[in-house]
């Protein structure tokens, strides 16, 4: 009897050890925060096994609609998860974070040699800058709205996603760009944290795409105090309930 019980327990625990990982698609801006959330959940639930794929929201959405086998989709907008739910490609969806847009120019200083951390940085900007592809990335769409309100014909470099914009600016290849606050919560040099009311809000939704048990548990975990603390500590606001 003892031998049978031991064998049964071994099979039980091995089923977790070799369980198919939860496959998670995440918009580029949220990748780092998602990694922190997954690690925290794994500390609470050691059998949690996952695999993360990151790209722009539009690219991931296209992959999902063409049959990519993801269990969860962390979008940078609310539109795509709602479309997946309407098309019966998602089981549930909900808001998990509100993104904050930042115009960042790390090397810029004013006439007094001081960094600028207010709207004048953007209002007076006349050099080339970058933002993410507005057709694929909600942060890019928000940045484009600001660009359309600004007079002038300053050259714009369109990147694949906000992570690529950050790379362009941080390496000095481009002097400035619109990035997500979550990518670097403590910005060096000059920057402007764009008020939410100046563009369509970047309200980010997650879609539960499968009935995988661990995916469901992780989806529920996002509403926990632990999860919401990690989200806010990494440059996001919480959605209004």
Automatic annotation (TrEMBL):
| Protein keywords | Metal-binding, Signal
* Residues forming coiled coils: none
Record carries keyword Glycoprotein? no
Signal peptide, first to last residue? 1-19
Check the record and name the Pfam families matching this protein: SBP_bac_11
The answer on whether this UniProt entry bears the keyword Metal-binding reads yes
Gene3D superfamilies given in the database record = Periplasmic binding protein-like II
Q: What highest taxon heads this organism's lineage?
A: Bacteria
UniProt record similarity statement: Belongs to the bacterial solute-binding protein ModA family.
Q: What is this protein called?
A: Molybdate ABC transporter substrate-binding protein
The root-end lineage is: Bacteria, Pseudomonadati, Pseudomonadota, Gammaproteobacteria, Alteromonadales
- Name of the gene: modA
